[in-house]
């Protein structure tokens, strides 16, 4: 009996170590930022072919890192990277707001990411309308010219006025249209709610406060309530249209400093969500208004004012049932970085290793996609050799009602020379497919990520060097909620 207990303990320890090194389910996402052409397209005014080629290059590159999700910024400044009936096409695409390219960027992203086994989260900014009012970029059919009373300017940036009900209604209607029209995994918003404060300038919302105070005496509390209201309304809008679509927020990395709130983190950040951006993230988590939270912990391990380790643990301990993913600052990696911790990819590798030891954290999101292109093997090699060696499926959201898929049918392998063609047919609730490969006669452990060969939305896959003498292939389906079906084995044609 004693030896049996020891054997069980050893197996449990080995399983724990393996899951930390390469779990089967883990968020591995990259932000694709479009504002100011950070990631895509590389500049305004490219041809459709050039833009498509750039998108494919980004996705192929992310796939080479075994990433499983992209967060595509489709509404950077009250404009559209999709076919919208409410807002003009973005000037960051063609150079002229209101002039759309000859294809639908969001639909192409969904199609091409899906082929590569990646989910798409659509990233919207709720309030920002014009990043620099000095530049005359707004198209004449923009809502600004029809309802200028809904907007205000702070610094050189124009915003929707967060204090108005019309703003909330309009933004929610934009979200509703996207959710209805597109097969997306999630709606995503980052840290830009009320803007970061400008020294010596007060945000100009006195008139809105006087018009709609809603019994509030303190303007800061009223501002927080404004953001609460739009988050709740967006959540309700998503549920009313497609309850299987997730709603995620990627806030600034510090909710509140402990000096201001005993519940806050042991940090000394110069700005915080609650006090400066009026975003009470913890309330949204407690109220089940959001499905996941991705704090932007863009500081290194050991940083004195905002230590990565301290913050990762704090957010994990304050998840309240939401999925928690960590936002990593990969963009800081540089040979000439002021902080020596960012002079190599080791910092990101260490961060991933650290959060894998925290069972309440469900994975990572990386800023941004262009970093992975620019760094090439410098970043790919350490990640793929160890942390991202195997493909991982994305986690199931804790708060979404699961959609159970049926197993695919008619899974057949046809050998063609040195390669094999795998085909199958879809069944009920199937959205994506996981192809597994096992040594012949050993279809056993579907929990082992090393057995995952590929993930795709397609119903066909060509496998070079399939080696059907020594390997067998199996297949499962994933639903919209990332729930996996029971497996079926491929038969040889």
Automatic annotation (TrEMBL):
Gene3D superfamilies from the UniProt entry: Glycosidases
InterPro entries from the entry?
Divisome_Glycosyl_Hydrolase, GH, GHL10
- SUPFAM superfamilies under this entry? (Trans)glycosidases (SSF51445)
Ligase recorded as keyword = no
Question: Is this entry keyworded Aminoacyl-tRNA synthetase?
Answer: no
Keywords annotated in UniProt: Signal
Domain Glycosyl hydrolase-like: from-to ranges? 26-342
A Pfam short name: GHL10
Q: What is the recorded name of this protein?
A: Family 10 glycosylhydrolase
